[in-house]
Amino acid sequence: MAEWLQQFAPNVVEKFPELIESFWQTLVMMGGSGVISFFFGLLFGVALIVTRPGGVLQNGLVYGLLDKAVNFFRSIPFIILIAALIPLTRLVSGTAIGTRGAILPLVFGTVPFFTRQVESALAELDHGLIEAAQSMGSSPWEIIFRVYLRESIPGIVRATTITVISLIGLTAMAGVVGGGGLGDFAIRYGHQRNQVDITFATVIIILAMVSLFQGLGNLIIRRTSHSGAHPVKGSLLPFVFHRPVGPFSSSAK
Description:
- Residues 23-217 form the ABC transmembrane type-1 domain.
- The chain is mainly alpha-helical and 253 residues long.
- The chain has a single domain (2-242), classed as MetI-like (MetI-like fold, Orthogonal Bundle).
- Helix content is 78%, strand content 0%.
- The protein has helices spanning 2-8, 10-14, 16-51, 60-74, 78-84, 86-93, 98-123, 127-135, 140-151, 153-176, 181-191, 196-229, 237-240.
- Helix 3 runs antiparallel to helix 4 (60-74).
- It is elongated, with a radius of gyration of 23 Å.
């Protein structure tokens, strides 16, 4: 095996420690920016749904500002966004290059995308469930947590999977401008020095990462769907919103 690798991928063997370091840098960038992007993307996605016209917390001003901000950042190509955020990145991270300097632009590039994915997932929810919850006296916050988020778990997982795979591509793109990681490794050696085996090695690693995250996402979707994330209409509400009242309630027995 070692002889085969030395024959067909000599540059990969020679720079294997650096390849491992670049792979770790990619994971760090994905982990740091991914956690932040998940939190803000979920928050903004829910905010868009509940503040839109007819939402449970309808607010035209908040919806309009948030909607336009998401559209604005989504319209900027990521390479240009990295350059535009250099002053802010230096202010926040202390540097605009390397793994640490890439996290902030990755967050700005990922949050708008994930926000729209979450918004789409929540918008697919049967509006009859919302109306039923409102008729039972549930507060807007109860509807958000017990209906929107609970019932949309498979959709949110699907959106997260798509976003993670997109984030892998963004980390590779960040490497082009000195962000480190597999993208930087492939550009420096595979492209600039024409070491084709390194290019193929990075492609295979990225392909394996995409396949792993996609498979994990599909598994979670199947598990959550079978566990009642999409029950028969109306079957979940009596359980979730059960509020015993009157002389025949369980608390009165």
